[in-house]
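Sample 1 of the test manifest.
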Amino acid sequence: MRVGQKIFLSSAFNVALIVLIGFFAIQNLNLMLTKLRFVEIADDLNASFLEMRLSEKNYFLYSDESALFDIKDKIDKTMESIDAVSPDISRAIGEENLKLLKTYLAKYSEAVEALRRAGRTEQMQTALRTEGKKLKEFSETITVLERKRVNDIITSSKKVLFYSFWAILFSAIVVSHFISQRILKSLRKIESLAQSISEGNFRKMEVVRSGDEFGSLMKAINRMSEELSHREEQILQSKKLASLGILTAGVAHELTNPLNNISMIAQTYADVYDKLSREDRIEFMNKIEGETERIKEIIRNLLDFSKPKEANLKEADINSVIKRTITLVQNMLDISNIDTRLNLADALPHVFVDEHQIQQVLVNLITNAVQAMSSGGKLFISSRPGRDVSSVKVTVMDSGKGISPEFLPHIFDPFFSTKGEGGTGLGLSVSYGIIKNHGGDIRVDSKPGVGTTFTIELPIYKETGGGEEG
Amino acid sequence: MSSYRIMVIDDEKIVGDMAKLSLEQEGYSVETFLNAEPALSRLKEEKFDVVVTDLKMKGIDGMEVLRTVKKLYPDTKVIMITAFANLDAAIAALRAEVHDFFPKPVKIKELKESINRALSKA
């Protein structure tokens, strides 16, 4: 089900609950009003009945015959008023009780009539008293009962409203919590994928629920990841071609001078052959030999670069490697008056490296840092656990002039150098190759005028067969 | 015949040595330099008829040599040789009135012909 539908359904459920409770409350209120209306009528009736009984008392106490007329008169008036509001009464106490009430009143009326016609007899007087008492008692009983019912209705309404308040609150909280938990779960998944994409790891995630918006979002992100991975391959390919171009140009230039020298020696040799002594001729050939040595050296360097030596990976403590490297470059650091600070984490897992090659990388980075700084610069070298537990991170941070943003993407390219005559443009390129060959990663951050930070991540040593091969 | 004075500037020692041997064969008087500073000092002392210079050198480069020579001796010919043969450099040199422009490897026969041409024009 889509998330929107879920939210709509849960809201609809709550609205239905509220409407139901509202309907119930209105029902109760109406019933209560009916009952109250009856209680009001009953109070009036009770007052009338009280007056009748008072007249009855007058009749008995003072033998006031006219009291009987008063009673009769009141009975008739009461009967009229009962008839006038009979729908209200019957709604409140039911048709049955209304009839009973009327019957009691009629009987009382008959008793009065009989007494009037037959005159005072003991039997008639008793009948009058009995009927009057019955009428009054019946009326009072019903009134008390109805009052109690009103109270009951109020109590039950209170209870229902109280419980339904908690029910709605509970449903709102539980349902929204449930929905938000599922949303958050999906978001966390997407977040972790985005994180790994930003780190250059174009994996895909498992789409758990394909029905809702998050399912489509996950699919879209998976497509994006796939597309990015594809694009990266293309970029890598074109970068390789560009590097090849730079490499070729660099090699061509390096080779031109010795080739020109050999060519000029040969031409001159032919030109001045007759005038040359035997020693001179041997000297010429030695010069050619020297130039071919020069070409051989260029080609050897090139091969070293293009095919790095097989790494001889061994378990090692990275902090010891760093410390040993520092002893190698201590003299250079002292001469350049560099304030070097080590911040090495304790108890780091061992790494799986070719110590000699890692030292070569660190020497390259430290040399670059020193060259980027003027005397008195600061160099920070630190080690700490990597982002995931399977790697160790080493950073080399300088307070040098930094690298301008347009050069940053090229600094690992072969023959790319910002040092002018001083650099071959191979140091970082070779370092990059070594770290990749270790299955690690090397990154650079730089701010012109603030400094440059190189970060190396190396895989840790695992008992079973060691680290990955790049 | 009075021998013409030729200066060769190149940071590759062999270029100067070989040029000197070949050009002296032709009867020219040749002086070689490994970089531009001492060469320009020498030029201020004495005029040379032809200056052969490498384009890309540490410190003062071939273009600078060309401009300085043209300022000191407008009729001295300058021949540029370079391992970086590219059109932009050639055009820049041409505008600064270079006499000839050779990419390495240099053909000595062509260099001699170019020098002869330069001297016959002068």
